Amino acid sequence: MIQTIPTTPIEGQKPGTSGLRKKTAQFRALRYLENFVQSIWTGIGGVAGKTLVLGGDGRAFNVDATQTILKMAAASGAAKVIVGQNGLLSTPAASNLIRTRGADGGIILSASHNPGGDDGDFGVKYNTANGGPAPESVTNAIFKASEAVTEYHILDSADLDLGALGTTTLGDMTVEVVDPVADYATLMEQLFDFDAIRALMTSGFTLRFDAMHAITGPYAREILVNRLGAPESAVMNATPLPDFGGGHPDPNPVWAHELMGLMMGDDAPDFGAASDGDGDRNMIVGRGTYVTPSDSLAVIAANAHVAPGYARGLAGVARSMPTSAALDRVAQARDLPCYATPTGWKFFGNLLDAGRATLCGEESAGTGSDHVREKDGLWAVLMWLNILAAKRLSVAEVMAAHWAEFGRNYYSRHDYEGVDKTAAESLIADLRAQLDKLADLPAGPLVVSEAEDFSYTDPVDGSVTAAQGIQIMFEGGARLVLRLSGTGTDGATLRVYMENFESADFGMDPQAALVDVIAAAEALAGIKTRLGRETPDVVT
Ligand code: G6P
Ligand code: ZN
């Protein structure tokens, strides 16, 4: 029986950089999830007759939310939902399923790299038929619907058994429970030279992949161990847990410290990698060598042709604006179109769909290609393994060769987390107000050459997205970007991105190489006094 439950709008259901993210407790609160899901149906023009993909990263509330969404889809007339076994799907695997099954869209339950569990975060993200995150026109429509929702519809029925593979029905709707790993693993096998990687594995090469107790454990086991012949011990923290073992499943040197300790130690394996809560981010590290996401993107752009799926070459490349310009140097040398978009994977969708870009990446540890419409953690790991298998060089040697050819963009991001929202917003607003007066003025030890509030005109559909971050160029080529995070759930997070190009000295500590830009940022923005913070919380 279909129940119609009266409700009233709940404030703040505005999707951010990547879906709606809130505390798990808030999502569990009465009508919170239901209001938002009903608003998704409204925002996408109704779900009647449609086919959706559904799955999440296994964090607390994943299974309960899956059951609720299934019943709500059935009540609103959806034709079919393809759901990952036990409600699980990594974000790239969900994107792939939407595409290969020709679904109308999908819902991914994740707060990505944010901690999970009863005290952590939960999230709901809608992806469209191309497999990518919904564009702003759709997320705005969902938000608008959430401000006007008066009732929701839900089937009054028992929970489904999500552990059993196969097809069943819920009311008039078909539900197909699928193996979350199989199709994705097959796709990877088509893109990369598994024979070459297997040969590398048997040549004494050692690796460690850290699944951070999140979704990629089962994927890494199937691909790295079962299909590529790595030993079982190559995958650490491989069992997904609802609270990620109490960890912060963000693959960077700060949060993946267990892996970093190993990679910087005496008995380090040749190669290390990690992925985040929902499997779309990656960290790449060689023995004693951390590779920044911006450098990793540039290395992949320069070498992707060694992988069979990219042997035909790249149509173009794209990065988010705050990502370093290391990619641009490769693009220039190889005569490839290169795009800079606002932060957020959804901005790559049109470029990928239109065949203008093959590879995309972000400084926030996301890299991917046109094989799906999300960034893809294990894809990046396999791409690196394919490159190492083809070149038979160490990660450190690959980096040295890359910098020798293209120069090095020293790069760092400083994050000030959980700061006062009003103080952070006024810091940005005050900078924005000065932008047109900054050119030619000194900023600490540097002189400003150009200053802008980044605005993006999508080259495919002409849509304009303004106010995407303050970008300041300095004489001599250094660059500074400041923006507020769109994914946090506590107060505000100020991100300060800095880079400086160097053509000869590749062995500096990035913080030392960037000391002038760091001083210029302080001189321009007054971070210490305005936010009351002496040092950033996270330096990557
Ligand atoms: C998510 C998105 C990324 C984006 C990142 C930025 O991970 O999927 O595309 O780069 O958020 O987060 P921020 O906190 O900087 O807004
Ligand atoms: Zn993620």
Structure described in brief:
This protein has 540 residues and is an alpha/beta fold.
Please describe what this structure looks like:
The chain has 540 residues and is of the alpha/beta class. The protein folds into three domains: 2-180, Alpha-D-Glucose-1,6-Bisphosphate, Chain A, domain 3 (3-Layer(aba) Sandwich); 184-406, Alpha-D-Glucose-1,6-Bisphosphate, Chain A, domain 3; 408-539, Alpha-D-phosphohexomutase, C-terminal domain (TATA-Binding Protein), CATH 3.30.310. It is 33% helix and 26% strand. The protein has 18 helices and 27 strands. The strands form six sheets. It has a seven-stranded mixed sheet with strand order 2-6-5-3-4-9-8, sandwiched between helices. A seven-stranded antiparallel sheet has the order 20-21-24-25-26-19-27. A hairpin with a 4-residue loop joins strand 24 (470-474) and strand 25. 55% of the residues are buried. The mean pLDDT is 96. The protein binds 6-O-phosphono-alpha-D-glucopyranose and zinc ion. Zinc ion binds at residues 91, 112-113, 276-278, 280-281. Residues 17-18, 112, 320, 343-345, 362, 364, 366, 485-487, 495 line the site of 6-O-phosphono-alpha-D-glucopyranose. Its cofactor is Mg(2+).
